[in-house]
Write a structure and sequence with these properties.
This protein is an alpha+beta fold and 197 residues long.
């Protein structure tokens, strides 16, 4: 498994670039924003998802671990392959996409090339369930009490955030007394905090 690649940018194509590392050129598929900002000869590090199939191997690159985590999570949805997941992750900031899923905002997903209404519904349904499942694992949610920090942190980590980011955002969400006590309300508030950062 290739977790990251750091090297000199070689050729840049419409959907990928070549990172030269120790005399080997790795073709890495990346979002348009990464390709537009890459310059031949410059240094670049990308966190990568290494796809291995019987008939294909490919690397997909991301600037942050959060983008990579969300990309991986998207591929658990029926009908979402790596190319569609890359289009989604590359379309806007990760917190914006996660908030849209939690708020069931289909318009955000349908606006992305290659995503129709049915696929947007499926993404929202399947990922919303996974976020809820990550939060329910905590004892406070299971007992029906107000969501605690552990539940919010677990939900944010399921969306691909680091432990430190999840803890910081959950503290902000818990500190705001105007926010409802449900896990969903708290996670939405935490995602809004991450979106502002």
């Amino acid at each position: 498994m290739i977790a990251s690649v750091e090297g000199t940018v070689g050729a840049i194509a419409a959907d990928s670039l070549v990172l030269e590392v120790g005399g080997i050129g790795y073709r890495v598929f990346a979002a348009p924003a990464i390709l537009a900002s890459a310059a031949p000869g410059s240094r670049l590090k990308l966190h990568t998802f290494h796809l291995v199939r019987e008939d294909q191997q490919a690397l997909f690159g991301f600037r942050t671990v959060e983008q990579l985590g969300f990309f991986t999570l998207l591929q658990t949805v029926t009908g979402v392959g790596p190319k569609v997941a890359l289009a989604i992750v590359g379309s806007r900031p990760t917190p914006d996409l996660q908030l849209a899923i939690l708020q069931q905002d289909q318009a955000v997903l349908v606006s992305i090339s290659g995503i129709g209404k049915r696929l947007a519904e499926r993404i929202i349904f399947e990922l919303k369930e996974k976020v809820a499942a990550a939060g329910i694992a905590g004892s406070a949610a299971a007992s029906g009490a107000a969501s605690g920090e552990g539940d919010i942190v677990a939900a944010l980590q399921a969306l691909g955030y680091t432990l430190a980011e999840a803890r910081s955002a959950s503290r902000d969400a818990l500190a705001d007394r105007a926010i409802g006590a449900s896990l969903e309300d708290r996670v939405k508030a935490a995602l809004r905090t991450l979106l502002r950062d």
